[in-house]
């Protein structure tokens, strides 16, 4: 079955570059970003893993753990990390799952269940280019899928996480290209009467269905 938003993220045990983990236990009470790669020693993914390492302090501030995955064994990950450090200036400072048997890729619907491990190329695994945002409740909050030829925008993943966390805490939605600190939208599920109680400082009504208000601060 296809994985959908709101589904519980499949649990699994796996070897990683930082030891064996049980995924749900590893997440604990944090948010988590799982981002996957079709193969080690691939060019676009090398740039991504290095950049994600540089962003880790930002995810830490947001109580969000990050974990990579590649459809190769952990022993290869450790050698690849040296190349990432050399070319990107940052070695991975988070665990990378070894998924040579494709178990996790299939659990997360990144590859068809019929696919078999073996001598596979990055092209064979090209659909394993996904990002999953997972909440402390272990449910999938957002998903992104990229082609092999396009590097992922992890600044956007950070922005997405900010929106997911804000809208989970407050009854608001974020508009197009929203960034933290900018105005947000009052959902149509909130009546005008309730909106006036919730936002005594006032809000702008652009249309009956489009009301904007300053971002809640706490």
Low-confidence stretches: none
Q: Number of DSSP helices? A: 6
Q: In order across it, which strands form the biggest sheet?
A: 5-4-3-6-7
The count of DSSP E runs of length 2 or more, i.e. the number of strands, is 10
Largest sheet: 5 strands, mixed
Strand content: 15-25%
Question: Could you tell me the mean pLDDT?
Answer: 94
Task: Describe this protein's structure.
This protein has 218 residues and is an alpha+beta fold. It folds into two domains: 13-152, Glutaredoxin; 170-213, Antioxidant, Horf6, Chain A, domain2 (Antioxidant, Horf6, Chain A, domain 2). It is 31% helix and 22% strand. It is built from six helices and ten strands; from the N terminus they run E-E-H-E-H-E-H-E-H-E-E-H-E-H-E-E. The protein has helices at 23-27, 43-61, 74-88, 103-107, 154-169, 192-198; strands at 13-16, 19-22, 31-37, 64-70, 96-98, 130-134, 140-145, 184-186, 204-207, 210-213. The protein has a five-stranded mixed beta sheet. Strands 8-10-9 form a three-stranded antiparallel beta sheet, with no helix packed on it. Helix 2 packs across helix 3. It is elongated and about 60 Å long.
Topology:
Elements: E1 13-16, E2 19-22, H1 23-27, E3 31-37, H2 43-61, E4 64-70, H3 74-88, E5 96-98, H4 103-107, E6 130-134, E7 140-145, H5 154-169, E8 184-186, H6 192-198, E9 204-207, E10 210-213
Parallel strand pairs: 3-4, 4-5
Antiparallel strand pairs: 1-2, 3-6, 6-7, 8-10, 9-10
Helix pairs in contact: 2-3
Highlighted features:
218 residues; alpha+beta; Glutaredoxin; Antioxidant, Horf6, Chain A, domain 2; five-stranded mixed sheet; three-stranded antiparallel sheet; 10 strands
